[in-house]
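Hi,

I'm pasting everything inline rather than attaching a file, because the server keeps stripping attachments. The sequence lines come first, and each chain or strand is labelled.
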Amino acid sequence: MENTNKRYWKGVEELKNDIEFVKNADREFNLDEIDTVEPTHRRDFLKVLGFGLAAVSLAACDAPVRKAIPYLNKPEDVEPGIPNWYASTYAEGGDYSSILVKTREGRPIKIEGNKMSSLTKGGVGARVHASVLSLYDNEKLKGPKKGNSDISWEDLDKEVVAGLAKGGNIRIVSNTILSPTFKKVIADFTTKYPSAKHVTYDANSASGLIQANSESFGQAVVPSYDFGKAKVMVGINADFLGTWIAPDVYAVQWAETRRLSSAKEGGKREMSRHYQFETGMTITGASSDYRSMIKPSQEGAVAIALYNKVAAILGGSPISGAAVNVPNLDNCAKELAAAKGAALVVAGSNNPAVQVVVNALNSLLGSYGTTIDLGNPVYFRQGNDTEMNAFINEVKGGQVSSVIFLSNPVYDHIRGAELGEALAKVATSVSFAAGADETASKCKYIAPAPHYLESWGDAEPKKGFYSLMQPTISLIYNTRQAESSLLTWAGAPSDYQAYLKSNWTKNILSGGKSWVQALHDGVYEPGASATASSGASFGGNLAGAATAIAGIKGSGIELSAFETIAIGTGNQANNPWLQEMPDPISKVTWENTIAISQTTAKEVGIDQGDWAKLTVGGKTIELPVLIQPGQAHNTVSVAIGYGRTAAGKAGNVGANVFPLVSNGQYWAGDVKLEKTKSGYTLAQTQTHNTVMGRQAVIQESVLSEYVKNVKAGRFEPQLQTSEGFKKPGQITLWNGHEKKNHSWGMVIDLNLCHGCGSCIVSCQAENNVAVVGKAEVARAREMHWIRLDRYYSSDAPHEEGYSPSGFRAMEIAAENPDVVFQPMMCQHCSNAPCETVCPVLATTHSSEGLNQMTYNRCIGTRYCANNCPYKVRRFNWFKYFENDSFDYHMNNDLGRMVLNPDVTVRSRGVIEKCSMCVQRIQSGKLVAKKEKRRPVDGEIQTACSQSCPTNAIVFGDMLDPESQISKILAVEKEGRAFNVLEEINVQPQMTYLTKIRNKEGVAKTEAKAAEHAHGEHS
Amino acid sequence: MHVVSPIREKLVLSGKSYHDVTEDICKQVEGEPTKEWKIVFGISVLVLLYGTAWVLWTWWEGLGVWGLNKTVGWAWDITNFVWWVGIGHAGTLISAVLLLFRQKWRTSINRAAEAMTIFAVICAASFIVMHMGRPWLAYFALPLPNTFGSLWVNFNSPLVWDVFAISTYFSVSCLFWYIGLIPDLATIRDRATGMRKKVYGALAIGWTGGAKSWARYEDVSLILAGLSTPLVLSVHTIVSFDFATSVIPGWHTTIFPPYFVAGAIFSGFAMVQNLMLITRVVYKLEDYVTLDHISLMNKIITLTGSVVGIAYITEFFIAAYSGVEYEKYAFINRATGPLWWSYAAMMFCNVVSPQLFWFEKIRRNIVVSFFMAVVVNIGMWFERFVIIVTSLHRDYLPSSWTYFTPRMGDISDYIFSFGFFFTAFLLFAKFLPVINMAEVKSVLKSSSEKFPEKVKKKA
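And the predicted assembly:
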């Protein structure tokens, strides 16, 4: 049929349909400059007008925003929504970290490590992470005080200066001060008041170590230790990965000796060997290869025995010492001797005699000049117990007329009670405490100093390693830096910032380094290029030390006072993040306990769930009992830092053990234990101790097996099908999720995780995780998004027969168990069981491998939490903010300033869980997008991976072949890599690497694995 | 050839006439409430008030008032839900399935059983809403059109299936119950005066009692029975999917659908037994609810109890046979772990105790029957508790293992459901005929113990 549709055209151009015409067809004027001159088209005018009108009226309809204050005059360097970072320094009582502070709209909200510091290398401990919350503690003093009444700074200055001017002895009491400029201020003060003297003590004293070094080498210092160079390392009651001197520094070094690689060529298959002799279980003991239990009174004897055994091999004269029957001593000595020049022995004892023997041993082993550097000492502990004792005697004797406190000795010194009573005799007493703590409340004046995030300052943690502290927020309360106060009282200009700058430019910075650059970097390290000192000759009195040690008599049950990672010496006790951070070993929160071994507990007649009265020399404390596997028999351990009475509403928990260890050695003998009540539930976040032989959860082996086979200890389930055995991933009902662009994931190396718990607090700070308090933790309702599963080995055989009695035996941890830490957070399963069961699609999968939670959509059926095999989902049982039942930081305006504005505060009734820090991923992607590139590996970090000092957690894009995670996985896929619970085929984005111990023989679980492979799953 | 069973069981005793039936049953509706009713009703209302206060407190404060924790996300809430839904099953079974099977003995108990179903399903639904963290958003679970773009329910989720199953079940049950009530409502209307006449008249929606009405009534009953019969199986099957489709050892079990249905009938019959035995005494209906009825119910209880018993044992066998480590542990832990007592209670109450009904004397003993029905319902509550809590509290990662301890919130919110159930049932028993008069009359001729002569003549 003929086509009757006629075509008409406007012109010849349309008929020909040439390119130029088509391009300009819908333009009225064919003029190029219209486009170039006027990007908004004339014809769009009405559209834009209409949109503008609609947008304005829509915006006007919106609910009013409460308390959002626009900048009238926007500060030059603050962009709403964009964080600013400042380099600063955390230095509290000798604990040190070089840090970066993240501020949002002028509020510090997060602390990260400063990788420019070659000392801490970006390592940041839990207490440092939590310190940002202490900034917003609303129980701090709002201004200076005289007694209980307010006073103006002018009046206070007048009165204090009058008091100081009266003459008499003036004492400045502090913990270790790392700041060289502060010391200069004190020197200036002393010039003005010649009767002034600075007394330093530490609640976690290393005075014995310093004294021993003075005796042995003529240098009263704490040397630099390099665990990274040690092939064999020994700790004698020294928790160097957790709390001893500078754990963040040592942990990084230690981890490098534990890192393995399954690469076919050049893969590292060597590990250090780590012996630990200790009383209570610490994370250092838990991470060691061989752990032996000793009583605190045996520290010296163990050191002597080791010395004698090493001397017998290397040639040295033995010294007299009591025989000790402690396992692993012989092997330890043999290996130490064999590793001469790459060996390191450290002891936590505060007894100079013990430290002298350890020095002699290290000297014998050639450690000085290799693993120990006396020439470049660290200044983390400068306390002098003798001077402090003398000071307290002076106060008691009424010989001190003025005292200025920078610390809290009434609480954290063993003679604190005596000091507290005697303080009334001091005419002028001033404390710089931020709150009315135990000491400050007994002082006449409190001149509150601001938090370090509001302050100027500096630190010299190690000879030649300087770092700067700068304020990241203006003063919250009417406070004044201690340095300014001292300068004022000394009659000098009180501007500490100027003082600091001038001191730095004059005395510290050299070689053209600028102040601004140093402030920007946060660190200035002329000492980094200093050569390590060569060996030192031991000149101590070994025989004298042996005699002193022989005089140590332990008897009965011995008490060991130790420091926990979370609370430390207790100066941040009022920090709810730290109180709720489970102890990595005991998993107890919000209180200290009497840790005791099962055997001793039975002998004494107490059990977990009881409270007991602990009496030493007439002094008594009452605490709940904790059955602690690995606790030496006939000993109990009690943490210091608890039992504060004036810390604040979160901090006044537990009991104070300082008065009970009155010898200054952090232990005491002849402990009496009496049960007082029972039926108590400890607030523990983990109540089941063993892994019940479940190899799909923890996979481990020993080094000798790993060297032979990189898959040693791996558990590879096979499922029986009609077509033979198949791996779980090969049979599936799932369609999978396409990941086109990114596939975010993590690799977690169980060998490097030493359980420091930094990730827990870092995650809590980043993700606005609520604090729920002791009662709720006891009900197993803590909200942490990442937890540190800690498993003890059990002596019970893994029964194939699955009998009830067999299982019950497996629930009981060994007396001195092997320990594994397993960081556990949302595994972001690709076949996520939680996603299918949510009735309302509140939890869904992203195109980048993330399992996402939509809080707004969640109706709180908790089905997802039930169906999560990893039990990582957390439910908001209550409203945890603005609720007087949960009176923590989220219940006051100041405390809420710490909240991360990028993360929703969850309402009650919804489920929450690890988001893999999706807010960081999104912002990292945006930054990259603006620069028209792909995100670079390492640019985006999750809170946990960034805070991990040993890099046990590596985060990255598994689709980026150049990323660290892809490289690790490429090597470890046929090696140590495994998914937890592989047989249920949930395909997690998280991969774990097997735990390898440098132990002889086949690991217990390994033997089981072999047996297992022929058993159920093959 | 027409086959008639030689001995017909006697379903109505004491030679009741049609008028006697009407009188006996309407008496309660028309008269002043009895003293017993007032006492029991008073107690029920008090319990309901106490429970309501706690439910409101739960909503105000949050689910933290319960004893749940990070590992055990469901305990009493879903236990109660499944338990009440299960109880509801008996009503449907009696009305629908027994109707289809022409079991005439059902006539005197079906009304109360159906009412019980409805109230039980309401109780169950209350726990669905109550267990939500944000119950005010419960409508999110319905596939409602919305303005949020593609926001929709997750049809993969068994909880959504539950929503459909329960709401279908509830509406069909209500319809069935109401249709059955119409002739009796008309009877009451015809005897009443004043306001009552108007109310019952409205409820009777113009029932005339004509032949055509009866024919339609019969048809609708049969159709509804046909519709409800698959529901008896499907509702609890779907409820069991809440567990069966999960990955939790002890939940992930293919035997659940038949096992749950049997359990539901088991507990439902026990509950009907309880209610009927009370009503029988309080309302003096011994001639309508006879020992034969009780004995028949007991037989079904024994049968279904044994079915669940076999299911329990099968689960253990499959756990051992599967070779799955977690499965094996889940079941050993169930029987010997920290919650062993709940397992023991379940086994004893559900499997062991109903075996007593093999003895006819016991089967026909009213006191024992009543007591046993209570025991069975305790056992069935524990069955759900065992499945939910013992599976959850120790699943895959031992680090997260916890224990479950109920708190006042759990207990009181459960008590709430009893308060509601009994209050509603007592109101029903007072204002509606507890026995289906029309249907009892229909069996009078064939199954009365001695059909009165004068009636026989008239008939």
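Chain B touches chain A through 57 residues (CB under 8 Å).

If the labels don't parse on your end, tell me and I'll reformat.
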